[in-house]
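Worked example
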Amino acid sequence: MVPVPDPKTAASPALAVHNIQIVYGGAIEAVRDVSLEVRPGQIVALLGSNGAGKSTVLKAVSGVLDAEDGVIEKGSILLHGEAIERDPAPRIVRRGMVQVPEGRRLFGTLTVDENLVAGAHLQSGSEMAKGREYVYSLFPRLADRRKQVAGYLSGGEQQMVAIGRALMSRPKVLALDEPSLGLAPLIVSEIFSCIAKLRETNGLTILLVEQNASRALAIADYAYIMENGRVVLDGTSDQLRCNADVREFYLGISAQPGRTSMKDVKHYKRRKRWLS
């Protein structure tokens, strides 16, 4: 279910996905009839467990499915009203959307500075310099490590470089794939604070794919929950945080004292009202 915007705040979506079906290897259906919208200046979270199809959706909107033999069989993806579902990744970047992939994927033998420059190949020299200083203001610890080889940084620092590299291309829409993966809680807090700051100070539009529902809902305006390749629930962050099933099975807040048993989990799977 795609949200109906408030007429007072309605704006054309920066990114709109309409009923896409994605198949791998011509046989394996990974995503079925998924629709979502991200409006300008919003942080929208795409939540779900491992294997739910979240990253596949992100790869589709970023134009990198072909690297894994994935194909959009049907549906459409609009970036600022223009169809991009058949566009290659470089064209999508030029149109203003950049992905920060899961696992960072930095150039491990290059320095922090060189990694940032690699993300600014579409910018002039002066714009590149401005972008680099902005990244260092956003992540001060990187400024002290600008000449350090990226492969020797901590996981959190590498994630900061990955986000900074994406920002160097001056995106209008930033797509983040599991930015908290494998990071210590304090570093996760720092990363998510920076993500929120990007929206608050720059009005950047962000699509956030995350397994950590609690962290994502704390900064997102709207969220979609995926299971088995489908969107099964969506709503504002406040609405989802108040949902009893989301609280218990995604946020770990049990409605009843004591441990949740496997019997309870099986009962929950039978009663999921959004799959009925």
